[in-house]
Write a structure and sequence with these properties.
Elements: H1 2-9, E1 14-19, H2 20-36, E2 42-48, H3 62-68, E3 72-73, H4 78-95, E4 99-104, H5 105-108, H6 131-134, H7 138-161, E5 166-168, E6 175-180, H8 181-191, E7 197-200, E8 202-204, H9 208-216, E9 220-224, H10 230-237, H11 256-263, H12 290-299, E10 303-305, H13 330-341, E11 350-355, H14 356-372, E12 378-383, H15 412-418, E13 423-427, H16 432-444, E14 449-454, E15 470-471, E16 490-493, E17 496-499, E18 519-520
Parallel strand pairs: 1-2, 2-4, 3-4, 6-7, 6-9, 10-11, 11-12, 12-14, 13-14
Antiparallel strand pairs: 3-8, 5-7, 15-18, 16-17
Helix pairs in contact: 8-11, 12-16, 13-14
Length: 525
C-alpha cells in the first residue's frame, strides 16, 4: 500500500492488490492516503472470501470504503472488472482519491466475455512539492478532512447518473431488487427480467436519489447482497421499507437456487451423481518437510501457536499439533504474550511455528519484540525455501525475485542473531531424533531461541527425491505406527501397511517410526 502510494506520488498510476485480511494490515496507510489524495491514479484491489474457502474469517470490505471515505467499485464479471479498472483510474485522478475495487471469490474465479481495447499509457504526472497536502501532521490533516468530505459528496453526485449504476426493467413491478457483484448474476439467473433490478456498480458512496426513485417505482423492495446488510442498512437510513437479510443469510455465499427459492418460491434441486464420492479434506503432501516437525511437537505434547501457511494443516488429524491460528505473524507475538502471562500447565512447553515467507512478511517484528523483552520463547521457522500455500512464489529468503531473477538473499540465521537471538540452530525435519533433541534443548533454555526447520518443499521441480520406499508385508505387524504422521502415501490393506509408489517421495519419516524394519527403500544421497 505504501509503495503504491509512493509510485502515485511520483506521478505514475499504481495498483495494490490483496484479499480482505490483507486490507486489515494495510488499513493504517489507507485511511491517511484518503486524506492526502493522490497524484497518479491509485487503485486498491481487494477480494472478499464469502464462504471462507481459504480464509480465517469472513468479513465485508465494503465497510472499509465507508469508514475510510473512499469510493468503491464492485464488478459483477470479467468484462466489468476490466471496464471498472479503467474507470477507477479516471475517477482516482479526477477526484484526487484512491479508489477501491472489490472482488469476490466467484467473480475472481469465473470467466466471461471481455471486449479488449487498445492499451493506453498516460504520461507521468509531474510531482509538485506540497507539504500541506502530503504531510499529515495534525495541522495539515485538520485542513484535509473537510476536503475529504466535500470530495465524497461530489463522488456521490457523480454516482447518481453514472452508467455503472443502472436500472434494468422488469415485467412485474410488485417487487424490485437492488443488488451488485455476483449476487446480481444469481438474481438474473433466478428471475430473468421478471422484476426490475437496480444493479449497482459503485457500492460506496451509494446513489441516494437513484435508490429512492427506484423504490418508489416498485412495491416490495428487496436487497440481495452477500454477507452484511450494507446496502439494506443504507436504504433503511433513507426511510425506505425494504427486506433482505430476513430472507438471505449474512454468513456464507449465496446461490442461484437459494435466491430462486426466496424470490420466485421455486424449489430447485441440484443434480446428484450416482457415485458416492469420498471427501478429500486438505492434507500435507507426501514428503512435506513440515510433517516430521509437527509429529515431534505432538509427541512432546506441546502447546503450539500457529500461523498462516500450508503448515496450518499441522492442526488436522492425525497430527493435531496446533492450538491457535490468527493472522500472519501472530504466532510469535502470541507466544511472547502467552509466556509473559505465565502459561500455567503449558509453561515451558509452548512454541510458535511460522513459515519462512510469513516470517519475512510479519514475523520478524514479533521476534524483535521477543528478544527486546527477553521472553524465554522458542520460535520454530519452517523454512521450505518457497511460499508454498499460494503457488510457489519466491520470497526474500530464496535469493530470487518474483520474476525468477537472482536477487539479495536474506540469511535467516544471521537475521535472527542480528535482532538479539543468541540461540539459533538448524535441523532437518526428516530427522525425527534431531528434531526431538532440538525442541527439548531449546525449551529448556532460559532465553529466547529459534529453531530453523529447513528442507525444501517436496513439490519444487528442482528437488530430487530418492524414490518411493516399499512396505514388506512379511515384516509388517499391522501396528499402524506409520499412520500417525498422516502421510497420504500410506494406507492399510488387509491389516498391513501399503505404500502408494505414485505419491511416496522416499522421505523416510515413516520408516523411523517402524520398529520392525518393515519400511525400506533407497537412501538419499
Amino acid at each position: 500500500m505504501e509503495a503504491a502510494f509512493g509510485a502515485s506520488l511520483a506521478g505514475r498510476r499504481s495498483f495494490c492488490g490483496m484479499k480482505h485480511v490483507g486490507l486489515n494490515v494495510a488499513a493504517d496507510p489507507l485511511f491517511t492516503i484518503a486524506y492526502t489524495g493522490v497524484n497518479g491514479g491509485m487503485i486498491v484491489g481487494v477480494a472478499d472470501d464469502a464462504g471462507m474457502h481459504s480464509s480465517q474469517n469472513e468479513q465485508d470490505s465494503r465497510h472499509y470504503a465507508r469508514a475510510a471515505k473512499l469510493p468503491m467499485l464492485e464488478p459483477a464479471d470479467s468484462g466489468e472488472a476490466l471496464e471498472f479498472t479503467k474507470l477507477a483510474y479516471e475517477l482516482s485522478e479526477g477526484f484526487d482519491t484512491p479508489v477501491i475495487i472489490k472482488m469476490c471469490t466467484r467473480v475472481s474465479h469465473s470467466q466471461s466475455v471481455v471486449e479488449p481495447g487498445e492499451r493506453t499509457e498516460p504520461p507521468r504526472r509531474p510531482y509538485e512539492k506540497d507539504g500541506s497536502k502530503y504531510i499529515m501532521m495534525p495541522g495539515n490533516a485538520k485542513r484535509r478532512h473537510p476536503v475529504v468530505e466535500e470530495r465524497l459528496e461530489r463522488i456521490a453526485a457523480w454516482a447518481e447518473t453514472a452508467p455503472i449504476n443502472r436500472v434494468e426493467p422488469g415485467r412485474d413491478h410488485k417487487m424490485g431488487i437492488i443488488t451488485s457483484s455476483t449476487s446480481y448474476q444469481y438474481v438474473k439467473e433466478a428471475c430473468g427480467d421478471t422484476y426490475p433490478v437496480l444493479k449497482l456498480g459503485m457500492v460506496w458512496p451509494l446513489p441516494e436519489k437513484k435508490i429512492t426513485e427506484f423504490a418508489k417505482s416498485v412495491g416490495l423492495l428487496v436487497v440481495v447482497e452477500e454477507l452484511d446488510s450494507f446496502i439494506e442498512s443504507f436504504c433503511r437510513s433513507l426511510g425506505l421499507a425494504c427486506t433482505g437479510k430476513s430472507s438471505f443469510p449474512c454468513v456464507g455465499e449465496l446461490s442461484q437456487n437459494a435466491i430462486a427459492e426466496q424470490l420466485t418460491h421455486e424449489k430447485r434441486d441440484g443434480v446428484k451423481l450416482d457415485e458416492d464420492i469420498p471427501p478429500r479434506p486438505p492434507v500435507m503432501c507426501a514428503g512435506c518437510p513440515h510433517r516430521g516437525l509437527f509429529y515431534t511437537l505432538k509427541q512432546n505434547k506441546l502447546t503450539v501457536l500457529g500461523d498462516i501457511g500450508c503448515y496450518t494443516l499441522g492442526a488436522v488429524a492425525p497430527l493435531g499439533a496446533m492450538d491457535s491460528t490468527i493472522c500472519m505473524g501472530a504466532s510469535i507475538s502470541g507466544l511472547h504474550g502467552f509466556n509473559k502471562a505465565g502459561g500455567g500447565e503449558s509453561e515451558g512447553k509452548t512454541v510458535a511455528v511460522i513459515g519462512d515467507s510469513t516470517f519475512m512478511h510479519s514475523g520478524v517484528t514479533g521476534l524483535i519484540n521477543t528478544a527486546y523483552n527477553e521472553s524465554s520463547s522458542t520460535v520454530i521457522i519452517l523454512d521450505n525455501s518457497i511460499t508454498g500455500m499460494t503457488g510457489h512464489q519466491q520470497n526474500p529468503t530464496t535469493g530470487f525475485n518474483l520474476k525468477g531473477d537472482p536477487c539479495a538473499k536474506i540469511d535467516l540465521e544471521s537475521l535472527c542473531r542480528a535482532v538479539g537471538i543468541r540461540r539459533v540452530r538448524v535441523v532437518d525435519p526428516y530427522d525425527l531424533a534431531a528434531c526431538d533433541a532440538a525442541v527439548k534443548e531449546e525449551l529448556a533454555a532460559e532465553e529466547p531461541s529459534v529453531i530453523i526447520s529447513r528442507r525444501p518443499c517436496a513439490l519444487l521441480k528442482y528437488v530430487r527425491h530418492p524414490g518411493p520406499i516399499s512396505a514388506d508385508p512379511d515384516k509388517c505387524v499391522g501396528c499402524k505406527s506409520c499412520m500417525r504422521i498422516g502421510c497420504p502415501a500410506i494406507s492399510v490393506a488387509e491389516g498391513r501397511a501399503v505404500i502408494d509408489s505414485t505419491l511416496c517421495t522416499g522421505c523416510g519419516v515413516c520408516a523411523q517410526l517402524c520398529k520392525f524394519d518393515a519400511l525400506s527403500g533407497k537412501k538419499e544421497a
